[in-house]
Amino acid sequence: MRRGLAVLxxxxxxxxxxxxxxxVRAIAGHGPWPPAFKADPSNRVSGNKEAxxxxxxxxxxxxxxxxxxxxxxxxHLPERNWTDGEARARGLALTDRNTPxxxxxRLHRWFGWDGAHDSLWSQAIRPILDAKEMGSSAAQVAKLxxxxxxxxxxxxxxxxxxxxxxxxxxxxxxxxxxAFQETVMSARTPFDEFRDALVKGDKAxxxxxxxxxxxxxxxxxxxxxxxxxxxxxxxxxxxxxDTGIAFFIEPGRVDPGRHEGIKKVLSSPYNLxxxxxxxxxxxxxxxxxxxxxxxxxxxxxxTPSLRNLALTAPYMHNGRLATLRDVVDHxxxxxxxxxxxxxxxxxxxxxxxxxxxxxxxxxxxxxQDGGGNYKRKAFAADCR
Length: 384
What we know:
Elements: H1 2-17, H2 21-28, H3 49-59, H4 120-129, H5 138-147, H6 149-159, H7 166-181, H8 190-200, H9 203-207, H10 211-221, E1 240-241, E2 248-250, E3 253-254, H11 258-267, H12 286-290, E4 301-302, H13 324-333, H14 354-365
Antiparallel strand pairs: 1-4, 2-3
């Protein structure tokens, strides 16, 4: 028994010594997890329990769509890690992009693959109004809130009596949806346990993390330089890059990505500089105020978080890559000629061996919490 423990501790010590001080610092930068909650100053009901409850109900409400058949949950399925498993989302019609997961969405700086929205509540408006998704209108949303006794009651508790301004009611509905979505957070993962053990010098804890994942982690922060873009506890810099994926949607039609997104966010009446933001000091609008449209933004898309990545296939903004192995192979073999914008010199073919590829996939899989941590409420009781 004692001999077995000694062997384990020796192995753990050898594992710990495999990471340099610089590597340990880089790994430590991907935590701690989970982060503390921070209310959104642009949404006065952020963190409000009654707003969260209203938002959760609205998230599964099909009457928000023009045909009464589509809700937010049609594409963001909790049981599929808040995605739909499709290459491109389908609402009233097939859309151009892959459904991103809602996990940890409150940590984002920009919203949508192109960053066309600068707040979570503004992003919540887009699918409601989008002709290809829910195809609704401010008038339809406001009518539902005013005429459904339960929603009218819950709205009054959170926002007061529904006003005559349909756009204002729409924004309030979006803020309730955002308050709910802020609660959608992924749980701790095997990587988090390893990261914390490494920081504490817990050799037994270090030894529990698979060797293949450890080797993959070293590639991630070393040879692969993946942590340049996939940085911090959420494993994303929240910015936009050309990843060498073709931006053609179909013959004669392209997806301009961030280039169009900047135009949209600056022209939106719902942006953080507009009248609907509750942040009177505009402290949260710095990015919106200073964002500048550049030619290089064409074909750039947002860096996604890697947490629970193994549960959100297929991958990339258009669902082009089916598996994690396909993603790693893409970056391993990428040709500089496929990069269509300026300045993406950080992307170079990694030329990984088969074992290195498997190790990197093993590390990415260790960022998975297993899913299923959300339990939908049974909405039975009427508002009183």
